[in-house]
Input
Amino acid sequence: MRNERSRGAPPATRHGPASSGQAQGQPLGREGRITAVLGPTNTGKTHFAIERMLAHRSGLIGLPLRLLAREVYDKVVRAKGAADAALITGEERIVPANPRYYVCTVEAMPVDLPVSFLAVDEIQLCADSERGHVFTDRLLHARGQDETMLLGAATMRPAIQRLTPQAHFVSRPRFSDLAYTGGKKLTRLPRRSAIVAFSTEDVYGLAELIRSQRGGAAVVTGALSPRTRNAQVALYQSGDVDFIIATDAIGMGLNMDVDHVAFAALEKFDGVTVRPLKPEEIGQIAGRAGRYMNDGTFGVTGGADPLDADLVSQVENHRYDPVRVLQWRNSALEFGSIEALLASLDQPTPTRGLVKARPASDHWTLMMLSTDEDVRARRGSPAVVRRLWEVCQLPDFRKLTPDEHARLVAQIFRHLMSDEGVIDPDWIASQLARLDIVDGDVNTLSARLAQIRTWTYVSHKSGWTADPGHWQELTRAIEDRLSDALHERLTQRFIDRRTSVLMRHLREDNYLDVALDDSGAVSLGGELVGKLDGFHFAPDPRAEGIHGRTLRAAALKGLDGEIAARARRLATAADSEIALSEHAQIWWAGAVVAKLVAGPHPLAPTAELVADEHLKDGGRELVQARLEAFVAARIARIMQPLIELKNAMNGLPNVARGIAFQLCENLGNIERAAATLPDDLAPSIAALTHYGVRVGRRSIFLPVLLKPQPASLAALLWAVHARVAQIPPPPVPGLTSFVIETEMPAQFLAASGYRTIAGRAVRLDIIERMEAMLSQASRNNANADELGARIASLLGCGLDEMIAIARALGWRREDGKSADMPATWKRLHRGKHRRKRDASDDRPAPNSPFAELAALISGD
Output
């Protein structure tokens, strides 16, 4: 049902007319737990939020696109029924009498509505130059009574931590790998590819080329209506076409079975200028390749330049620079006059980390109308100024000129200020009559759809029309007719439909030649029958039944030569052509060819081939030997100090040999308290120091292995040797400590060079440095608070967390004996007796002949 005003309809949003009386920065009602669920694409964040919402008694979720909001609304209806679900976007309202769950676009969120659960999706759009101020407002003010969830990219963590310090963080790793495959011509792109451009003209031009060379493509642009976009996506999903050409609208909300994303351009117009895509924007779009556990690839095509190695590494590993400033616009607006409203919109940012957003369409329109004599004559009371601002917020769907949009807004405002107080129905009818025509080409129908969206929006605004239900049904019907007509024109223009399917008519005694393209797609007589992915043949699910089995058998018979040739190419491939992912998969030529499995030693894993029986014995042995050599060489290069220690083990003194053995078994570090060590370490120190080993108070380790690359590889090797099913992502490079948010095995952290202390993972060298600082301060009776602040800064945590870590390490803060004496750090006592001091605390005098030996032992 579509009700413009019903008992369950929510109040206006913060940006709407009901917002002026709210205090800046004060969320309404009780504020519950705030959780930021952050991670790259294909991590299930939105699905997780929907499940959490439906577990509460009531909920509200804000999504970045109208299309995605409709998709989520349909899921909620299936789960809870239409009576409990409401949909609110700028152009659509479905609000039953007493809904429990509201699904909205972020701009349309009724943030003053008291709900148990509230979520905002794609929170990284706080940095977007056009819409960012709305997302920032939701970040600062939108709250659920029991739980608030912010979903988005990991780049938002520092900003959320700074502006919402009470937030808890949950990291979601990507379910599958994403690998770069370089540049390919349009004619060589693999099937099930999405090709990305950044203008409607470029999308249509690429679609024309794909039609002439590859049979056809579906198209998706931001200007299409949801109905047209859904129909185009359905064409692709059904397999009628194997390519989809899209703008960056594909980056959010469109969940499709895409294996490869190809960028036809790497620049976009952002409303002000043409600029290069940011790494995180490339990652957001490329991440649409691969769904759930299926791996994906990305690359460039057409005139786009190849991506440089650093950018590829960022995208493949989902590591980008943090968002430093968020777009902001004052939401506590004043409606005493137009001048007061403009002044409140121009307020400076209230805190660091926010930047004032450039004037949006509504702000520009208000500024233009503020000089219109007819509008100024009607400005009157605050209620009139509120209504003017409400009309200025009409989106510019037509994308014409600011003057033309302002003229339309002024006309609507004059109608609302007339004696009738609503828009003249005859005027609306005349506008709609000009649009209710389904003849014309793609561009003509697209222009009509953009205009009808304006009137759909108008029909859903409370108090703008005398009979909103009538106009809502009429505009919806016209939009549907135009959408269907546009889908038909797009299909006619960009798809060459096949008149027959070869596999349905192929006779068993009439085989055609097998063809294999650069993407690995296998076809018989031009008809797709499957894909050769590395050394694994995946049959096309559309080739089913007896004819499908016949086609697959014929294809495999013709692939023996290609599989043997691939084995020979891999056997001579350079190490730089082979890659090891953080999911322990080995990639070559855009495909997974093996995975690491546990071997006899953590430093000697085995490469397990991902290959069918069609990789014959000779070729299998070549491939196996090459991949084993690659793995060994990679470990030898990255873990070189540990490998050297392992190779030299037999030449070390007995005690030093035992310590070296434990270091190699534990991938470069051991905890002194848990290790088997002699009472006197001194004779072994010099022998171990020669190989870069540091003997510290808490750990014995190789400091060089704490660097990001060896630390990540060590963690991966531990996980492989321990047969961990879901390997966690390695710690973020450069962190001296961090809160352990998800279940991460202590041994995995230890292999990465961290110890778990008081709920935080702290890097080994930082623990040693902290111990040395505390010991020195204890001997000198230094000011505990000054040192605590320095150590907290070193750890990157709060003072309370630093004190908890120090206590876990055996230290306590002791107040001074008098008011003028500072607090100091002391070792903890056990009962009435002081704990026996560690050997490392028995320091010789500085000028003692044993001072140098003591320094070696302590690691200072």
Observations:
- DSSP finds 28 helices and 36 strands in the chain.
- The radius of gyration is 32 Å.
